[in-house]
Amino acid sequence: MVGGGQGSFIGAVHRIAMALDQQVELCAGVFSRDAANSRATGEKLHVDPSRVYTSYEEMAAAEAALPADQRIDFVSIVTPNNAHFGPSKAFLEAGFHVVCDKPMTLTLDEAKELVGVVERSGMVYALTHNYTGYPLVRHARHMFRSGHMGTVRKVLVEYLQDWLMEPQEKLGSKQASWRTNPAESGIGGALGDIGTHAMNLMEYITGDPVTSICADKSIFLPDRQLDEDVNALLRFQGGGKGVLTVSQVATGEENALRLRVYASEGAISWCQENPNVLEVSRHGKPKEILTRGHAEYLSAEATAATRIPTGHPEGYLEGFANVYMGAIEAIRRHIAGNPMKTAEYNFPTVYDGLRGMQFIYTAVESADAGAAWVPMPSTPQAN
Amino acid sequence: MVGGGQGSFIGAVHRIAMALDQQVELCAGVFSRDAANSRATGEKLHVDPSRVYTSYEEMAAAEAALPADQRIDFVSIVTPNNAHFGPSKAFLEAGFHVVCDKPMTLTLDEAKELVGVVERSGMVYALTHNYTGYPLVRHARHMFRSGHMGTVRKVLVEYLQDWLMEPQEKLGSKQASWRTNPAESGIGGALGDIGTHAMNLMEYITGDPVTSICADKSIFLPDRQLDEDVNALLRFQGGGKGVLTVSQVATGEENALRLRVYASEGAISWCQENPNVLEVSRHGKPKEILTRGHAEYLSAEATAATRIPTGHPEGYLEGFANVYMGAIEAIRRHIAGNPMKTAEYNFPTVYDGLRGMQFIYTAVESADAGAAWVPMPSTPQAN
Amino acid sequence: MVGGGQGSFIGAVHRIAMALDQQVELCAGVFSRDAANSRATGEKLHVDPSRVYTSYEEMAAAEAALPADQRIDFVSIVTPNNAHFGPSKAFLEAGFHVVCDKPMTLTLDEAKELVGVVERSGMVYALTHNYTGYPLVRHARHMFRSGHMGTVRKVLVEYLQDWLMEPQEKLGSKQASWRTNPAESGIGGALGDIGTHAMNLMEYITGDPVTSICADKSIFLPDRQLDEDVNALLRFQGGGKGVLTVSQVATGEENALRLRVYASEGAISWCQENPNVLEVSRHGKPKEILTRGHAEYLSAEATAATRIPTGHPEGYLEGFANVYMGAIEAIRRHIAGNPMKTAEYNFPTVYDGLRGMQFIYTAVESADAGAAWVPMPSTPQAN
Amino acid sequence: MVGGGQGSFIGAVHRIAMALDQQVELCAGVFSRDAANSRATGEKLHVDPSRVYTSYEEMAAAEAALPADQRIDFVSIVTPNNAHFGPSKAFLEAGFHVVCDKPMTLTLDEAKELVGVVERSGMVYALTHNYTGYPLVRHARHMFRSGHMGTVRKVLVEYLQDWLMEPQEKLGSKQASWRTNPAESGIGGALGDIGTHAMNLMEYITGDPVTSICADKSIFLPDRQLDEDVNALLRFQGGGKGVLTVSQVATGEENALRLRVYASEGAISWCQENPNVLEVSRHGKPKEILTRGHAEYLSAEATAATRIPTGHPEGYLEGFANVYMGAIEAIRRHIAGNPMKTAEYNFPTVYDGLRGMQFIYTAVESADAGAAWVPMPSTPQAN
């Protein structure tokens, strides 16, 4: 693991997600740029001190030098955005599989370069757009992909939080500090942190790509440099239209990632805060409430992503673990000499990561032009 | 009453709304342009046949010719949009108060002219933006107007229906027929029919006017000429931003008028489909669920607009009747020789009607320019 | 109208319910035992002072003495329970139809006697168990009656309020005063006021009568004589079991009348506080959310009881008005010389009223025996 | 681990719950009475084959014979009810701590004996009433224990499922097979499986013990011997009353464990299916919606039991893991020579297990007497 020292939020999440299914053991890491923090974290996590490193370069080199049956199988990168590209490249080139948090890189150029690095390396690269791991998200995708919903006409996607309503970065929050700092986060604030999730979730489910964006961004608190709030109009390849709205200053909201898609044959509504429920509407029929765990009526994709019976809620960590499950499967297959094609991956890939960076750059370009329409570039597809 | 014959939806609604509080008796009308329909409707409603007229001009003249204690006190106009201006003008100029359905007129020019007619007449003119009649809408307005919410940062307003997903206008629906016909509806489809409600509700509650609009409109069904679906970005005078989205082809939606306002000191969420509930959020505090009928904690405005105890749901008709209650109060005061100022009216006025028409024209101009930003004109205020 | 003077709650409700469909005009009444209150109320309601009476006996006699085309068609009795029987009997015997609030009488003996009075009179008698007027309640009944639900296995019915948590009867509330006084209310407190509604709703929908009851009643506030809270086990004729729980001291509850029925082929859930929704569950299938106004999938009974489109909420008053609509239809048929059979009535009858009184007496007998099982007597059926 | 082989549900849950916080490694087990199943499961779980045993007696002996730093620290017992007592006793007496699934034993006598075994052993014994692990359940307990709610007046507790609506035990379900078999389950069906959870949750939160029970049980499917459905009236020591209702044939229900407590100063409502929300009501105030993760307003107990930010749902597995966290803490303290008192345990104890068995026996005695009132015995308290 790279990152995840004291003060980190997402590091602990990754550790639970990988432990949950008892497939992964944490053996090595550089948990912080601060060596003392790294050491202390390693100790707390029962990592052999000889494998607690002080830089990712050292770790990649040292692990690569270990015998094949002793070295790590893959690395999880859970650092701020500005420390995604370097470690990813280093580990991939040293022959390690990589699981990395989103957004994929600090800049669009890094993202484009990383696509090449992954392709050349032949290694598995997984990006933790964890919301794609929820069983009912996978079922919704299945409904759209299998033609049960018709053509997308209207998409309303929101990701609303309020945790940056206070100037947390001035109050000692490490989380807020790097997330509001362009040097560490890149050109997107809410856009990068949660907008990329909203964008990814929508396209993951509908399969209908955004073709242009008109984004209006706002900063309400003094001294902030990055967008706290964005409202954007969307147009889709299939002729539909949409709205994407994200905020980190939406008073009273917690992690309200909500997606509604209205298509010619039906509509879905899903909300991350109660993810075990998927509402499906058909014109002139009673709305249906699908719940996780019902193999009788859910798709195999949804059923495969669940661990416990219906009515026993699964949450964020289980969804996150499902992304890991997919990555681990691909890694096992690679190790077994029978690698999967990228198009077979059951988790977000480097291409999804590139698309996220394209989204940030397109939205910022639009906003900087006074909320003008800007075409969304196409993204190479996984083969 | 002008309009409201067989096949009308809103005519029956107006009749219930005015009957509910037992203050109004229906004595005269021209219920349809079709004389037979008008006569049959009159008979069914127990209206004296001598006061069932064949045109609004005839009715205005004949009623004005009756002795003061026998003629109608006011007229309700419940016709399609193209038959709002004529009757309104005729009755106002004949000395009758007017209650009219929205949008106020067919064209923006008519709206501007009607403002003058109302001002010169000195009569009461009420526009039935009925959603302003809900008690918790009035309480929400009170919260913003009294300074308990701070500055508006983000507004998300939606009005979603799906009843035009089928080509109802080809299947014999009178409602769909005029609503999809520009000659009867004007230049706005969903914009005029439900967008004006969404716009009015938002500004009614927040008091923070829209200053510019970027609207993207869509038509999905063949042969439709008017917008079925609109997504719009909004900017507000106070520095906030917003999204307005309306649709009459949003699969599975019924009358989902939902408003969320995120302000610096708190947020509200309200939905017309369960109007007895108002959610109020404050950063770092539990969300509060306010329910209609609680005089202990609701404002006097909210309490005055309610008839039954909390927990016994009030609905659309009661909200509609509250607009009538306000109009009747103003009419009584006028009759009593003690007229209210327009600024004192507890119901939407001719200025709200003008603003609605300005909204339609601004949004259409934006959409026709490819969803470009267009400033929203200011609107004269009631005195 | 008998009752409904100042300080009354239900009187105003009845007046709105009867006015809403513009079929009824209030022409006469004795609004209070206090003559001044009665006069003042009559004046406020624009009733001819010569028809504002000082006692029900006087009113029944005077109205009967009027020419047939001038006298009232029916009387609404909206007094406390101890003043139901006398006026009902007097008006029925004077040849007037009667609409009366529930519970039907003060005592079980009065109820039994009233059955005979109604039968002998041949007049229409309607009891305002208003919750049977909700469209989705009627649809639920249709589902059970038409065999789509199978055999009832478990019923959970609740009616929870908290308005008697404070000693309102000591604080000047007329409502609380008579409802906590056995001389005016009878032997049931919450049992009579809301328990009878819960019992009636359950049997109305399922058609499966209660055969025995084990009821545990409680009084928490000092000086109260009547039950504030009751929990009861139920057994049904069809072999199912159930729970009925009512309270007027259930902190934070408003008018939470909720019914869940689990049957062999499906289950329903309905709550009065959001009455436009009916949840229907089938084993192994997604839950369905039925909403009022959908003629595509709701029964004719449900569709006939609705006035406005789906998504525009209807509430308590509209449901109440539906009971009046049914009574008015029966009264019209009677006047037209073509009376309906009681079994055809689309509203609660004198037999429902008797059953309510039997329920109160059975539950009190059970509770007084320390919550022992007591058989519920059978009730004569309407023909 | 004892139990948890193929076909087990709860074994996998325990394994996830113990793995999640990366404190526990599974090193040994007897996963099934069927040696092949046990071996196969052990292999799948990467357990050293030399520590996959064929009986619990063998395992207890063999592990005890290992050097202290190589043997297991504690054992998890996840077998059917008839195989709880034997292994518990064996491991406790062999000097191992025990975590066991509920209900604690097959019979009440076993339960009483086990109390003595635990007391004499001085080892840690934890019972996985996992619902006590939810953060908002702990907060609710805090609210009652700290005097913010006043006196309990009414409790409504439900645990409703429908998975036994089909005769699963005849269709090859191992789960259904033992749960419907008195020889493996004991005298309670739904009572033991879910009724004990409902009872435990209620008393855990309110601290107000049940003093008598009147329980009516039902069997609807042919050939079933154990209760499928129970409705029970409850009386509490503090003077309040309640209803407990459980079912495994409640059409359409999944794992609907819902608790509502109405007390003199406030009320709470919580449902396991959306456990991140706790509703708190106060008379005459807006209802408050408390959500997990808000250290600003939640108690330390609630905050300590949470891993991720508010709005990111935690579920069943995290709650379950919290019970393990508590047990692990007590075990660590014991190993460190500084054992906690039972009264300090932050998890259900052997006394809770005894109380659960007393509850089953009391309810069955009541039901067998035709649903008569039976006193609930008192239970020794932890010191």
Give a quick rundown of the structure.
With 383 residues, the first copy, chain A, is α+β, with helices and mostly antiparallel strands.
Descriptive overview:
Four copies of one chain form a homotetramer. With 383 residues, chain A is α+β, with helices and mostly antiparallel strands. Chain A is built from twelve helices and twelve strands. Chain A has a nine-stranded mixed β-sheet. A three-stranded parallel β-sheet of chain A has the order 1-2-3, sandwiched between helices. In chain A, strand 9 and strand 10 form a beta hairpin. In chain A, helix 6 (135-145) crosses helix 9 (190-206). Chain A is globular and about 65 Å long. The relative contact order of chain A is 0.15. Chains in contact: A-B, A-C, A-D, B-C, B-D, C-D. Strand 11 of chain A pairs antiparallel with strand 11 (287-291) of chain C.
